[in-house]
Specification:
This protein is α+β, with helices and mostly antiparallel strands and about 270 residues long. The protein folds into 2 domains: about 15-155, Jelly Rolls (Sandwich); about 165-270, Winged helix-like DNA-binding domain superfamily/Winged helix DNA-binding domain (Arc Repressor Mutant, subunit A, Orthogonal Bundle). It contains 8 helices and 14 strands. The protein has helices spanning about 30, 40-50, 130-135, 140-165, 170-185, 200-205, 210-225, 240-245, and strands spanning about 15-20, 50-55, 60, 70-75, 80-85, 90-95, 100, 115-120, 120-130, 195, 225-230, 235, 260-265, 265-270. α5 (about 170-185) crosses α8 (about 240-245) and α6 packs across α7 (about 210-225).
Length: about 270
């Protein structure tokens, strides 16, 4: 099983563009595309996809209020999306990884509601949305897949509200780790050993906690032998315990009828 995402090397700050994308031979096809698409359908999708763009670490893919033209399928790498409040401070709204779509926030208003920045050297496939809409009428399976993707994004946003509103600090952090574990597993990577591509400060911002709180939680979880940390490499030693903690119990699942938090590849869900 793979344990590390693909990497490429580019000069610092470089943005390499112009690579023609192709779904048929892409390693992310099984994640990005719905199951059951015929080769002819994939060929039609190939025709509308513009280019692959390599985005250097800390470079923005798009900015708030920028006119909407494309969706972006992450081929490899990691991104964060964030808003700016009235005081100009960042509020991180999510972390995205390979196989996920960026830019859906702009579909309704025609402008992006937030900013997207690469957490490491990354690559995306541009998907012109106007041409994608034309395909929906001819490919119902693709339209259904897109609706499901949008639904998952809405659930993820709702789960952020849950994290910030109803969970204790240790629950928030446990749910965050369990969610990452499930998402990496869905990509075929290790569910128990992965790198935190985001900084502790970014994690704290996302979870509504200070960087000091994140450091204390990491230390506590290490002392409890729930995880091991080597720089940014995290190994979950007791994933079942972390899932139980995210669900509101240090040792056992919630009793029937109470709020239950379930980790999945699409987000931390409430059932």
């Amino acid at each position: 099983m793979m344990s590390q995402p693909l990497q490429y090397h580019a000069a610092p700050g470089a943005q390499l563009t112009g690579f023609k994308a192709g779904c048929a031979g892409c390693g992310m096809q099984r994640v990005c595309l719905p199951m059951g698409l015929e080769q002819a359908d994939i060929g039609q999708l190939d025709e509308i996809i513009g280019r692959r763009r390599r985005i250097a670490r800390d470079q923005r893919l798009y900015n708030m209020d920028e006119p909407f033209a494309n969706l972006y399928a992450i081929r490899f790498g990691h991104f964060k999306t964030f808003l700016l409040n009235a005081g100009g401070e960042q509020q991180i709204s999510g972390f995205q990884m390979a196989g996920e779509l960026l830019g859906m926030d702009a579909i309704g208003a025609g402008r992006h509601h937030g900013n997207a920045v690469a957490l490491e050297d990354s690559e995306v496939c541009e998907i012109p949305f106007a041409r994608l809409e034309e395909l929906f009428g001819r490919m119902p399976t693709l339209l259904h897949h897109f609706h499901r993707t949008m639904s998952q994004e809405i659930m993820r946003e709702q789960n952020v509200m849950l994290l910030l509103g109803n969970m204790r600090a240790e629950q928030r952090f446990a749910a965050f780790l369990v969610n990452l574990s499930a998402r990496y597993a869905a990509l075929g990577y290790s569910a128990t050993s992965f790198q935190l591509r985001m900084s502790r400060e970014d994690i704290g911002n996302y979870l509504g906690l200070t960087i000091e709180s994140i450091s204390r939680l990491l230390s506590r979880f290490k002392q409890q032998h729930w995880l091991r940390v080597d720089k940014r490499e995290v190994t979950l030693l007791e994933p079942a315990t972390l899932k139980a903690l995210a669900a509101g119990s240090d040792s056992a699942p919630q009793a029937p009828g109470r709020l239950r938090v379930v980790a999945s590849a699409t987000g931390t869900l409430v059932a």
